[in-house]
Design brief:
about 425 residues, alpha/beta, Rossmann fold, six-stranded parallel sheet
């Protein structure tokens, strides 16, 4: 059925048509009618399902006819990238309307954000920490707020934002419509929804977490110390046209990006230690095609929306199955197709089995022809350079040249002054 079934404002329908959307996704079919009717929502919606449009369209429809000059909608997100993506989608949908919006996020100057509060933009899309920074000032009043959206609520709780969310609720009216979207429904999310929602419509709460049907999934078994070489072989062999590559930590993202760059791959990285301008440039460059590969940690897993992304690659197997679903959901979005490859070392088989139990099937194993899976690690000389006996094969030489050389491919459990590496 077309979007006209929702009886949206004509100017919004023009925006939908400009974006090339011809028919709504299942989450949009389920969520838009009750939201248009003013009901609170509690929806379980996965990455790539079209949920952003599902919560934006009903709100924008109601705002078109409202008086201007006061912020009436607030969208809370866990990451800057997701906030920027929602703002981009909102601006695309409202091209033919006078509605205005602004992102209130960390890593950038507060001046323009203060102006957004003072001028009363129609919609603010923000991250909890930066919103609370503004709420300390008298200009940051949202007394006219009518709509609140929590997007990726489970991710916000994972990142420790629950106390911040509760503090934000004290700054906004209790009488409002609340749309609550989460990929999973752990007990803490259910409890928070009970505090925030009034007689909500429940959507997809019994759905099992699994990737979209348009995603082709494959597992590449490979020794840990040969992962970088295998990834390079996939890229050079034409198996991968463009790829979002996920690593477990910021340090591994930096090392992998450096390795690929040394082998003439157009690559950039994005993680929590990068400045906002660096993260924005990396994402923009990847979207435009300037970079073939974007290496990321999970901070970006729910904030990157690239049209027709060909491949998502798990360089490290995620420990939590839901993280796998969110990572691979960056491709095959909105009923499109894509591929998700996971490089699995013997040490990671346990995590892979947990993922397969969660998605309800065994993922196919694939090997790359002509790749030397038996290549050994090089011996080290006194200066830490490759040398001595046991010269490696070509694949292992490529790995050794960039520093992927520690026993078992793992980083040391202790570093510097005895500090343990923490999962990023």
């Amino acid at each position: 059925m077309p979007f006209t079934q929702f009886h949206l404002h004509a100017d919004l329908l023009r925006g939908v048509k400009d974006l090339g959307f011809t028919r709504p996704t299942p989450i949009q079919v389920d969520a838009i009618p009750p939201a248009m009717a003013g009901r609170d929502l509690l929806a379980c919606a996965m990455t790539g399902s079209g949920k952003t449009v599902a919560f934006l369209l009903p709100i924008l429809h109601k705002l078109v006819g409202k008086p201007r000059g006061a912020t009436r909608a607030l969208v809370l997100t866990p990451t800057r990238e997701l906030a920027a993506q929602i703002l981009e989608d909102l601006n695309d949908l409202t091209t033919h309307t006078p509605l205005s919006a602004a992102a209130v996020i960390g890593g950038v100057g507060m001046g323009p954000q203060e102006h957004a509060f003072r001028s009363g933009v129609d919609v603010i899309v923000g991250t909890p920490g930066r919103l609370l920074d503004h709420f300390r000032a008298p200009y940051a009043k949202l007394s006219a707020l009518e709509f609140l959206v929590l997007d990726e609520a489970d991710r916000m709780l994972d990142m420790g934002f629950l106390p911040d969310i509760r503090r934000i609720l004290r700054h906004i009216p209790r009488r409002r419509q609340t749309l609550f979207f989460s990929a999973t429904m752990p007990a803490a999310i259910v409890e928070l929804s009970r505090e925030m929602l009034h007689d909500p419509v429940l959507i997809n709460l019994e759905r099992r977490s699994e990737p979209a049907t348009g995603i082709t999934q494959a597992v590449y078994p490979v020794p840990q110390h040969l992962k970088a070489a295998l990834l390079l072989a996939l890229i050079r062999g034409g198996e991968v046209r463009d790829a979002l590559v996920f690593t477990r930590t910021k340090h591994r993202a930096d090392r992998l990006a450096k390795h690929l760059g040394q082998h003439t791959v157009r690559v950039q990285r994005i993680h929590g230690n990068r400045s906002q301008s660096q993260r924005t440039e990396a994402l923009a460059g990847f979207k435009s095609g300037r970079y073939q590969v974007l290496v990321a940690t999970d901070i970006a897993a729910r904030g990157i929306d690239v049209t027709a992304l060909g491949h998502v690659i798990n360089f490290d197997v995620p420990v939590v199955p839901d993280d796998y679903v969110h990572r691979v959901g960056r491709t095959g979005r909105a009923e499109m197709t894509g591929s998700a490859f996971t490089l699995v070392s013997p040490e990671e088989e346990g995590s892979l089995k947990a993922i397969e139990r969660a998605v309800g099937r065994r993922l196919p194993r694939v090997t790359l022809p002509d790749f030397d899976y038996a290549a050994t690690r090089p011996e080290r000389d006194g200066a830490g350079r490759p040398g001595g006996a046991g010269r490696p094969g070509a694949g292992a030489r490529a790995v050794a040249s960039s520093g992927w050389r520690r026993p078992g491919g793992q980083f040391p459990r202790r570093h510097g002054r005895g500090r343990r590496f923490r999962r990023r």
